[in-house]
Design goal:
The complex is a heterodimer of chains A (199) and B (239). With 199 residues, chain A is mainly α. Chain A contains 11 helices and no strands. In chain A, 71% of the residues lie in helices and 0% in strands. In chain A, α2 runs antiparallel to α3 and α2 crosses α5. Chain A is globular and about 50 Å long. The termini of chain A are far apart. In chain B, α1 packs across α2 and α3 packs across α4. The chains are: A mainly alpha (199), B alpha+beta (239). Chain A: Belongs to the sigma-70 factor family. ECF subfamily.
């Protein structure tokens, strides 16, 4: 018998908040999932689905579509869990990347009538980043500090693009600048961020 | 798209990777980037680096529990024929490992050779991008997942279960054919360990060598050959 009982049983009511799960445990769950361990997959879902659903909701802004996307995200996690071993990302970052990429792909594939797009842009948030406060922890502090070195609207464009998966066109419309200006802004901002983080 | 060409000149892969991770690319550009991530390990690492840089932004995604119907739908999609998700079968040969503990140090090395022979059915196809080995044994709860990555020319070991005793280390061995086991090194404790392959080890892997983990005194085997019980072993297979 190999031991498959190293992961503690989940709380009976299945709440994702009841059992704090560290990075180490999530790694193990992903690796065990890659070995087709269904119990590990169930636990992984329990501990991470709320975060990944949050990603899908924010990007897709539609509950039904976010629910479908989350299904597809976990199907991908099941079938591609082995990739985690060769990635250098932390387990949560890896999972978020899978979810974000999938949600953004879905967003791009969506055919949006122009009128709806305009309406969506109008109601979208222009307020300066509430995200700024939500960033916490060592790496988060560094990234936040580097974002502060950018001009405020450019930092907002970076945050907005990351969190919502906006295209250059949408960002240009939101910030009322020409498309090429937005493209230049973001590219320069990304390179500045990288320089700052490597200092 | 014309600006793709422009950026190819200006920022190269780093900028494409950054834009891909940020999420601003169009559908065809995203598709092209995703294909490169799958095919080009160097590009995938640049993308990973950007994912890591921007990852703290994800703290702003508010958690929200999905409805139970989502998990039910996932299970239907993945496990509709529930009977085929039985645990992976075990090769019966590991029952013979139980007596290894009783053997002398020299005997253990010999027994290790005997025991891994059945695993060496065919050479590993190292032209595959990724090969995987599940390292385990019936008499122990130690389990590692080994992943060979051709592009990076390295083997990653992911710890799945089983802890080492306080005054013991795990040592990784490569065993090819009738040859004596060759030490790959002491396995550092931790979650994921990466071993860069030497020419010698790569040749052995290509020849169908098996990976095995034995329990050794702290710092590794004093003799250069396995001295303690083998707690996990396995051969590389295509994923």
């Amino acid at each position: 018998m190999t031991a498959t009982t190293a992961i503690p049983a989940a709380t009976p009511n299945g709440t994702p908040y009841g059992t704090p799960t560290g990075t180490h445990d999530i790694s193990k769950l992903i690796v065990r999932t890659s070995l087709r361990d269904r119990a590990a997959f169930d636990l992984l879902y329990r501990h991470t689905s709320a975060k990944l659903f949050g990603v899908c909701l924010r990007v897709l802004k539609d509950r039904t579509e976010a629910e479908e996307a989350l299904q597809e995200v976990f199907v991908k996690i099941w079938s591609k869990a082995d990739r985690f071993a060769v990635s250098e990302l932390s387990p949560i970052s890896w999972l978020v990347a899978v979810a974000r990429n999938h949600a953004i792909d879905r967003l791009r594939a969506r055919r949006v009538p122009a009128a709806d797009l305009d309406a969506a842009l109008e109601v979208a948030d222009q307020a300066p980043s509430p995200e700024a406060q939500a960033i916490a922890g060592g790496e988060g502090v560094r990234l936040h500090r580097c974002l502060e070195e950018l001009e405020a609207d450019r930092a907002d464009a970076v945050r907005g693009a990351y969190l919502r998966g906006d295209t250059y066109e949408e960002l240009a419309a939101r910030f009322s600048v020409p498309l090429n200006t937005m493209r230049t802004w973001l590219r320069r901002s990304l390179l500045k961020l990288k320089d700052c983080l490597e200092r | 798209m014309s600006h793709v060409d422009e950026q190819g000149e200006q920022g190269g892969d780093d900028l494409v990777a950054a834009e891909y991770v940020l999420g601003v690319l169009s559908a065809p550009e995203r598709e092209a980037a995703a294909r490169r991530v799958d095919a080009d390990r160097a590009f995938a690492q640049i993308v990973d680096a950007w994912e890591a840089r921007l990852a703290p932004l994800a703290a702003a995604y508010a958690e929200e529990a999905p409805p139970a119907s989502v998990k039910a739908a996932i299970d239907r999609r993945l496990f509709a024929s529930a009977s085929d998700v039985a645990r992976r079968g075990k090769t019966g040969i590991w029952s013979s490992l139980a007596f290894w503990r009783a053997l002398s140090a020299a005997g253990i090395a010999a027994a290790l050779l005997l025991a891994v022979q059945p695993l060496m059915q065919r050479p590993a196809d190292l032209t595959q991008d990724r090969l995987v080995a599940s390292l385990d044994a019936q008499n122990s709860d130690v389990r590692y997942l080994a992943l060979y990555d051709r592009a990076a020319d390295r083997v990653s070991l992911s710890h799945v279960s089983g802890e080492r005793a306080t005054d013991r280390d795990f040592e990784l061995w490569m065993i090819e054919g009738q040859n004596a086991p060759v030490s790959v090194g002491v396995v550092p404790s931790g979650n994921t360990i990466t071993l860069q392959l030497t020419d010698d080890l790569r040749a052995k892997l290509a020849a169908g060598a098996v990976l095995a983990i034995s329990v050794e005194p702290t710092g590794g085997s004093p003799t250069g050959q396995p001295t303690g019980p083998v707690v996990a072993a396995g051969g590389l297979r295509d994923i």
